[in-house]
Design brief:
Elements (H helix, E strand, L loop, with lengths): L4 H12 L16 H10 L11 H13 L11 H10 L13 H11 L4 E5 L5 E5 L5 E2 L11 H16 L2 H15 L3 E5 L13 E6 L5 E9 L3 E2 L9 E2 L3 H10 L1 E4 L4 E4 L2 E6 L5 H10 L2 H4 L2 E4 L1 H10 L22
Parallel strand pairs: 6-11, 7-8, 11-12
Antiparallel strand pairs: 1-2, 2-3, 4-5, 5-6, 9-10
Helix pairs in contact: 1-3, 6-11
């Protein structure tokens, strides 16, 4: 996506906080070199100011960002959306109220040249809308994007943690927070204390579509690698255990207390803390008929790690540094 240089210069002035006092108060905070780096870090990018002229450096950064991947012709790249949302944070209002009408007018005067407009949604975040098609751009987590060095470090920490924890800990510490962050509702873990109530599923949950229709999901969780080998190694699970559990999951009704009725699971997740081999997926596909096959989805270690990082979830408590303890004997 290409923006006119004049547009980029105007947005760069807003990010830098450049203003002429003769033209009235500024609606954007002044940002020096270090604060520009902090701004782009807050926008989840890795640009570091190199000491050059701030305005021209920001213009070049915006050009690079707009050259990034986009979902369609009417949606700016996700990084550009985050930059605009960071720039228009209502907590940074200057010389006006939190609705920031002055700042919004200046930004829209520049964006409308490119066919976009900025607006505040009910969540008080600033979004972009394509004027001609009314397409609203909302940044979505992309688990396939490149990771920063810090994200790779967090990913490695979580991967090592997955090797140590039990199946119940995988569900409670990793999967449940991840599923909540992804927008699933009414997430219920059956656990392993009362196996007779699982009916093939470790987790059930619901997802509300934009049309307000509700889909129900069940999940069968395995700690290790899921393979199709004749003899599985210790810590791995064989896919031969899965078909009966998947069919039981899809065929057994669950009670939704919010609607006060019993419903069938629409889709079944097969989740593994290790790899789900291609042979295992193919074998399971052959064992299930066509209608059931379309209801089964897979989530393996790579999916868990990538989704956990891009949704910016905090690491499990076991991986966080211990909180400092203070003795009553130490004077303050």
């Amino acid at each position: 996506m290409k923006f006119k240089r004049r547009t980029l210069e105007q947005i760069a002035d807003m990010i830098c906080g450049n203003f002429d006092t003769d033209q009235g108060p500024s609606f954007f905070a002044y940002r020096s070199s270090s604060y520009l780096t902090e701004f782009f870090t807050d926008a989840d990018t890795e640009f570091v100011h190199d000491g050059s002229t701030r305005k021209w450096w920001v213009c070049d950064v915006l050009e690079k960002v707009l050259d990034g991947p986009q979902d369609d012709a009417f949606t700016p790249p996700a990084a550009f959306q985050r930059i605009i949302a960071t720039l228009m944070d209502q907590g940074d209002a200057l010389n006006e109220g939190p609705g920031r009408p002055g700042a919004l007018a200046l930004l829209n005067a520049a964006l409308q040249r490119e066919g976009f407009e900025a607006f505040y949604a009910e969540d008080k975040r600033c979004y972009l809308r394509h004027i001609k098609t009314a397409t609203v751009a909302r940044p979505t987590p992309n688990p396939h994007r490149p990771f920063s060095a810090q994200e790779l470090q967090r990913r490695d920490q979580l991967a090592a943690h997955l090797d140590r924890i039990s199946e119940d800990e995988l569900i409670e510490e990793v999967l449940l927070p991840l599923l909540r962050q992804l927008g699933f509702h009414r997430i219920t873990a059956a656990g392993h204390r009362d196996k007779q109530l699982e009916y093939g599923k470790d987790i059930w949950m619901r997802y509300v579509l934009p049309t307000q229709h509700v889909l129900y999901f069940g999940a069968q969780v395995k700690k290790g690698k899921l393979d199709a080998a004749g003899v599985s190694q210790s810590g791995n699970s064989n896919v031969a255990e899965i078909p009966n559990q998947a069919l039981m999951m899809l065929g057994h009704e669950i009670f939704d207390p919010e609607t006060n009725r019993k419903v069938l699971v629409d889709h079944a997740f097969i989740v593994a803390g290790g790899e789900i081999t291609k042979a295992a997926r193919n074998w399971l596909g052959q064992k299930l008929d066509a209608s059931r096959r379309s209801q089964v989805m897979f989530m393996d270690r790579e999916d868990i790690l990538s989704l956990y990082i891009v949704t910016n979830l905090p690491l499990p408590k076991a991986l966080l540094p211990p909180e400092p303890s203070f003795s009553d004997d130490i004077p303050f």
